[in-house]
Design a protein that fits this description.
Blueprint lengths: L13 E5 L10 H9 L3 E5 L6 H12 L6 E6 L1 H9 L5 E7 L25 E3 L4 E4 L4 H5 L5 H9 L4 E2 L17 E6 L7 H11 L2 E5 L5 H4 L1 H15 L3
Parallel strand pairs: 1-2, 1-3, 3-4, 4-8, 8-9
Antiparallel strand pairs: 5-6, 6-7
């Protein structure tokens, strides 16, 4: 599916982090701090969440700034974004953090078909087509392993997504030509576990499972950072 970098190749020291729906890039702070402390150059995409095209453009804008091979990381909806944007020539590998991974010609919505519903993760959609996670269910559905105060802040600062983005067909699937890794939260209430495993297996991703909620990019930052570093070092032939 992909050609590994030759042994002795220059190390991959750039990381671009892509957030998902109902969140913004600030949630990556602990992952950012851990990776920068290890010597990585890390930048964070701020998705407008207005369309797949807009989010891919925002991601490409940051990828264009990188000075060499880059690990592209996506959480949740961010997985769809990196799947489309990951063909960028500076992307050396992809890391999916409890993330969606459609194939070319598929929509994000199709990934849910045939899998169990997620009754604790409830999206309320406004007349304008933008959706929020239901406020009084945010903690149990999105981030049950953070404090009540942090969950309240996350709920009240969430960024809505244009739900039509889930019906947009992808033109590309970068995981078909780039190596991929997946970190799966075993207590994720936003996705059926079987759905996450199915997507990871279809990609041929190297899978790490961690105990945690859908907010594992916050609560399991150490394991997420370790996976990103493992991806970077393996691609450098180390």
């Amino acid at each position: 599916m992909f050609t590994p970098m030759a042994a002795g190749a220059a190390p991959v020291k750039n990381v671009v982090l892509v957030h998902g729906a109902f969140a913004d890039g600030a949630g990556w702070r602990d992952v950012y701090d851990k990776l920068t402390a290890r010597g990585y150059h890390v930048q964070i995409v701020q998705n407008p969440l207005t369309s797949l095209q807009d989010d891919v453009a925002a991601t490409n804008r940051i990828l264009d700034l990188q000075n060499g091979p880059t690990i592209l990381v996506g959480h949740s909806w961010g997985g769809t974004v990196i799947t489309e944007a990951g063909l960028h020539p500076k992307v050396a590998g992809l890391v999916y953090v409890s993330a969606l991974a459609p194939d070319a010609g598929e929509t994000t919505a199709q990934q849910y078909e045939g899998f169990a519903p997620t009754p604790e993760f409830v999206i309320e959609i406004g007349d304008d087509g933008f959706g929020f996670v239901k406020w009084d269910m945010f903690k149990q559905g999105f981030a049950h392993d953070v404090s009540d105060a942090q969950a309240a802040f996350m709920a009240n600062s969430q960024v809505p997504i244009n739900m039509s983005a889930f019906s947009t067909k992808l033109k590309n699937a970068a995981w078909r030509s780039k190596p991929s890794w997946a970190v799966i939260a075993t207590e994720d209430k936003a996705f059926d576990q079987a759905m996450l495993v199915h997507m990871a297996e279809r990609m041929g991703a190297k899978v790490t499972k961690v105990s945690g909620s859908h907010a594992l990019f916050i609560t399991r930052a150490e394991e997420v950072a370790d996976t990103i570093e493992n991806a970077a070092t393996s691609l450098a032939g180390k």
